[in-house]
Design goal:
The protein is of the alpha+beta class. The chain has three domains: 101 residues; 50 residues, no CATH class; 92 residues, no CATH class. Helix content is 47%, strand content 7%. The protein is built from twelve helices and six strands. The strands form two sheets. It has a four-stranded mixed β-sheet with strand order 1-4-2-3. The protein is elongated and about 75 Å long.
Amino acid sequence: MKTSDLPINKVIEYAGNPRKNDHAVEQMAATIKRFGFRVPLLAKSDGSLIDGHLRVKALKHLGEEACKNVVGLTAGKVPVIFCDDLSEADIKALRISINRMAELAEWDAELLSAELEGLAAEGIGLKDVGFSKDDLASLLQDEGETLPGDEAYTRKIEAPTYEPSATKPSVAELFHSEKTERLLAAIEQADIEKDAKALLIAAAHRHTVFDFGKIADFYAHSEPEVQRLMEDSTLVILDFNKAIEQGYVRLSESIRKTYMQDNGDEE
């Protein structure tokens, strides 16, 4: 279907729109500002709006100056697909159907949580994708108990139980650092500023891969002082509540999955 440009001030909102969306205008405006105007409006050639009322309100909220910097908008014009082939009855039905179909879809709380955690690691927060902390807490309530604090997490995490092996693994078996060492060598040889080098050295250690199953065995056979330091470093997690308070929920889930895989008991 052909996309055309329509001046924003020529768009005519449908007065009988049954959707209440004023509460979501700021969130939509933030999304458009960050990611651009990526979804064309549906309208008649006279400007009568069929679908996209929230996006139009968001553009008006941003203002003319801010819209000049939005990807997808050109000289005060918004992309639109004209639907003049539809009857008035079809337009009304389509307007309701589009919104209803979006309501019928459901979230998989576990997959959504994983996606949001991944986005958070990239610096994209809940507000950037239209969620509030209360929204996420309400959603996760159906999957597991929610916890108080700055962020809402699910406690649908099972602590792995295991019998320690009879032998204590060597330290060399606990982690793999080949990539880390290659990066460190390259950084040391690089002719760059000290501050940049310090940053890169710190980041290089993120590529060290730990074998948490063997780390658990090593922990079980270690002296108390070593065990305490391993707990403080979150190489092992014995108290999930404490781990959650310290922000290591993702690490605890990683440990669980790694251990289950190593012992052939993955869900």
